[in-house]
Amino acid sequence: MALKLDDNIFIAQLDGLASWVRKNSLWPMPFATACCGIELMATASSRYDIARFGSEAMRFSPRQCDVMIVAGRVVMKMVPVMQRIWLQMSEPKWCISMGACASSGGVFDTYSVVQGIDRFLPVDVYVPGCPPRPEQLIRAVLDLQEKVQRTGTINAREFRDRDHYEGPTPLATELPVEELVVAPGNYRTGTRLRLN
Amino acid sequence: MPAYLDVLNAKFPNAFTTSAFRDNQRVQLDAETAPRVLFPLLRTLKEQCGFDMLFEVGGIDYLHYPDAVDRYCVVYGVLNTTTGERLFVKAFANDPDPVLPSAVPLWEGANWMEREVFDMYGIAFTDHPDLRRILMPEEYTSFPLRKDYPLRGHGERHNFQHLTRAES
Ligand code: SF4
Question: Is the Cβ of A184 closer than 8 Å to some Cβ of chain B?
């Protein structure tokens, strides 16, 4: 015997339902450290209007956010701050790495700039570009929505097996001693070089 | 010759050399005399020659520089706000322990600028009230603007713990 339900009753999987609800109101945490942040602001402006996709509520308190958008280069001194903000966000949470700098260090391959935040944080969506256009960021939000819909579960089970390092292979950062610049020196007061 | 150079010559004979480029006047103190002469010289400039403003303190590493004699240099830019004259005092220092007297007793504004020179070049300033790193993290051990410091550092950028998704 077929069960007849009223027209205002729907049947869905709980996981799918939760993901559907979540994906349409992803509140961003704008972790904007450099020029990409300007593009992030433009994305929220009326011209590009990220509100069409439910992500207009930028919250400056990590406890109210669902997705951290790291926009710009991150220096060494900032990594503990970034990790703390990430840890303060409540589950479920996602991370978008926006721009060449956040994703790989970009042109700033110097002593102080981190070569990709995915070395220290789990990242879900990367946005290429320097800076990415607002359309690209909107595309990233749409991709994240798709990811949430496909993999999301009501009690965040899908994060449980992401327990390994997801970043790139480590850089050969340490120069061998023989490649360090050491000059014999010709200094009146007997200068010698100290290898720091 | 500017009048303040006569004052300096009378007070510190043969202690410094001078040079000029366009309207930039420079006074150089080599590494042997700088620790002794720099502070009284700056005091004379401030109190007797009217250079009442210290507008810049910066560092230079002259490693591999052609014809350089001493390695480190700290440049003090002073300005006479009445006449508009500018003067750059260059004091040199050498390894293994580059040390210069601090200008903070004369100009409070030297405080952070000297901290920056210390942070980037490792030049210590005696009698500085609070000589700590100002830009780099406290636990950093190198001096990144020295010419023998590799561009990518010694791996300090990667000294942090990775957070995996499951544990965060
Ligand atoms: S990717 Fe380009 S625009 Fe973005 S922070 Fe880096 S330099 Fe700036």
Answer: no
